[in-house]
Amino acid sequence: MNKEKTITSTQIKDLFKKHGMPLAEPTELHPDSVFLMTLNGVTPEPFLINDEQLISIYIIQCWR
User: Fold this and answer.
1) Do 42 and 60 form a contact (C-beta atoms < 8 A)?
2) Can you tell me the distance from the alpha carbon of 20 to that of 41, in angstroms, rounded to the nearest whole number?
3) Which pTM was predicted?
4) Is 48 exposed, middle or buried (0-12, 13-18, 19+ CB in 10 A)?
5) Which of 7, 31, 38, 57 is the most buried (most CB within 10 A)?
């Protein structure tokens, strides 16, 4: 049985919120910031945790 499972950025954001760490979109981020770096053709979604810690979330397809 081969069922494809995909996680979305919405699911990830909901999990952070469920654990008391809501994510906010950063208002000022330099376009050349490492947190916006495209890797393997995927551009991340940057977020702030508690308005002070910056993270990037990449949703990357994996092939086996």
Assistant:
1) yes
2) 31
3) 0.73
4) middle
5) 57
Choose among 31, 29, 23, 19: nearest CA to 57. 23
Q: Which DSSP string do the residues of 33-48 spell out, in sequence order?
A: -GGG--BTTB--EEEE
Q: Which two tokens stand for residue 5?
A: 């499972």
In sequence order, the β-bridge partners of residue 24 are: 48
List the pLDDT tens digit at each of the 64 positions of the chain: 445 678 888 999 999 999 999 899 998 888 888 889 998 899 999 999 988 899 999 988 776 5
Task: Please list the residues that pair with 57 across neighbouring strands.
Answer: 45
